[in-house]
Design goal:
The chain has a single domain, classed as Haem peroxidase domain superfamily, animal type (Myeloperoxidase, subunit C, Orthogonal Bundle), CATH 1.10.640. Helix content is about 35%, strand content about 5%. It contains 18 helices and 8 strands. The strands form 4 sheets. Strands 1-8 form a two-stranded antiparallel ribbon.
């Protein structure tokens, strides 16, 4: 069953070592967008206080609630999948502490789906079934995903747990991203069926470009304010424009080759942690299941191992696919991602050891995902949010507006759980954060504030600009990408092609 304790949750194996270079030209390294600053430093006790203030206590539930956004929850795990495609640092906290400038990106820094394709059928034939990707065992029959399959697994552990045989082991971190991996494999297989005369390389390129189109024109507009995206390129929000006429503008990303900035990977792109719901109803047969259950791994959506075959995902419950015959009900609805704000759910505050790793056994604070993010940012010498805002020419958010609480519908910006309650500010947690907000928290606070100012919790001038520029820069350095091949269009000329179209196509595969 899922949840074994011996697994390194970040996998193993060296990938992409020649693809990234450090500031000094050393191969295989991350880089930095901002230089000449004093990194933020705090005590671990204060970082844990901040993490605790960000951690919620709600259990999984059916029906809408005030923390939901207008973003379908499938995008939470699409975002996690994207992260696993472009960046991977398996080093421990101690390794990072010993050499904060020596971390390595073990993924290729491009949107090439190497987390699906691995090193290709010649080098890793066990991932393939001729031109198609190999699929695992059938899951239980459910009405709106009757062909549901697990990923390929092998019994490689003494405890009987089955390991996923996939391009990136992190895509087995939870049941949802594991099954999304399977859907991307089925999308490839369906593209093989639709184009029987094509060789593997042609199908792979077509799949990658459809994926890139969904990343740029569907995912980015979901998580970043439109005006911020338009400052990078108007063609992101408006796919009727092209990157030939609207080339990206890079104000932060000043490298002549693809590097992975730590401000992106360790702070800005960890926005998805705040989007996770406490739990999810997977199909017509399950009750809402916790995203993680530390005390009983078999009752949460923990993975890194086999899970019940009855947990096949009905993707209509995660994104609108037009497959529901009647109106939404509390028991059958598109479950929405939580808003991008300064809060994480209870399950992320007490990770299972299969996700947190052995380091958490000696330091229970490392079971809290918020603490892990904060500690990693400090170890890797990130600048504070205020420092980054100033370097970008953006007025920093005042301390009393950096509020650590969910952005609830119907509440005021400073309101707590009930009318009259006051939500905690970052300096209310500790005076050590006065004028010195960790970059990850600052970016989330910026998004939270956007909800009250503009009606939508989306990344803004600081976080949004970092994410948008990094995404576009990685595409800019890939000569096969949609940015460099502006005449390419998705199947059927559908300029609005997005995540829902990938999943609908995959359901037939």
């Amino acid at each position: 069953m899922a949840g074994h304790h011996s697994h390194n949750p970040h996998g193993s194996g060296i990938r992409g070592l020649t693809s990234l270079r450090n500031i000094d030209g050393t191969s295989g390294r991350f880089g930095r967008l901002f230089k000449d600053y004093s990194p933020g430093t705090w005590s671990e006790a204060d970082l844990m206080k901040l993490a605790a203030a960000m951690t919620g206590s709600d259990d999984p539930k059916d029906g809408p609630d005030g923390e939901e956004s207008d973003i379908a929850s499938a995008y939470t795990y699409f975002g996690q999948f994207i992260d696993h495609d472009i960046t991977f640092d398996p080093s421990t906290f101690q390794q990072q502490k010993n050499d904060p400038d020596g971390i390595v990106d073990f993924r290729t820094p491009r949107f090439d789906l190497d987390n699906v394709y691995g090193r290709g059928p010649s080098d890793q034939p066990y991932l393939y079934d001729r031109a198609k990707l190999a699929l695992g065992e059938k899951l239980f029959l459910i009405e709106r995903n009757p062909k549901a399959r697990d990923v390929v697994r092998v019994s490689a552990a003494s405890d009987g747990n089955q390991r996923a045989i996939i391009g990136d082991p992190r895509n087995d971190e939870n049941v949802i991203v594991s099954q999304f991996q399977g859907m991307m494999q089925r999308f490839h297989n369906r593209m093989v069926d639709l184009n029987p005369a094509w060789i593997f390389d042609q199908v792979q390129l077509e799949v990658r470009r459809h994926y890139q189109w969904a990343v740029v024109h569907d995912f980015l507009p979901k998580i970043i304010q439109s005006d911020v995206l338009n400052q990078v390129s108007k063609a992101i929000v408006d796919p009727t424009l092209t990157f030939n006429t609207e080339p990206p503008v890079f104000k932060l990303y000043n490298y002549g080759e693809a590097i992975m900035p730590v401000e992106f990977s360790v702070a800005a792109y960890r926005l998805g942690h705040s989007m996770v719901r406490p739990g999810y109803r997977l199909n017509e047969f399950t009750t809402p299941l916790a995203i993680f259950d530390h005390n009983n791994p078999t009752s949460g959506l923990n993975a890194f191992g086999n899970f019940p075959k009855s947990w096949a995902i009905d993707w209509q419950r995660f994104i609108e696919l037009g497959l529901r015959a009647g109106p939404e009900t509390d028991l059958d609805r598109v479950q929405r991602a939580y808003k991008i704000d300064t809060s994480i759910v209870k399950g992320l505050g007490a990770l299972p050891f299969s996700v947190a790793g052995d380091e958490a056994k000696s330091d229970p604070n490392k079971l809290n995902l918020a603490f892990r993010n904060l500690l990693r940012g400090q170890i890797l010498l990130l600048p504070t949010g205020q420092e980054v805002a100033k370097k970008m020419g953006v007025g920093p958010i005042p301390d009393d507006k950096i509020i650590l609480f969910p952005a609830n519908d119907g509440s005021t910006e400073t309101q707590g759980d009930t009318p009259g309650d006051v939500a905690p500010t970052i300096t209310g947690v500790s005076s050590a954060f006065a004028g010195k907000c960790p970059l990850w928290v600052y970016i989330l606070a910026e998004s939270r504030r956007n909800f009250y100012l503009d009606g939508r919790a989306a990344l803004g001038a600081v976080g949004g600009r970092i994410v948008a520029e990094v995404f576009m820069a990685l595409l800019n350095f890939d000569q096969d990408s949609i940015l460099k091949n502006a005449t390419w269009k998705p199947m059927g000329g559908n300029l609005r092609f997005g995540l829902a179209d990938i999943l609908k196509t995959a359901l037939d595969g």
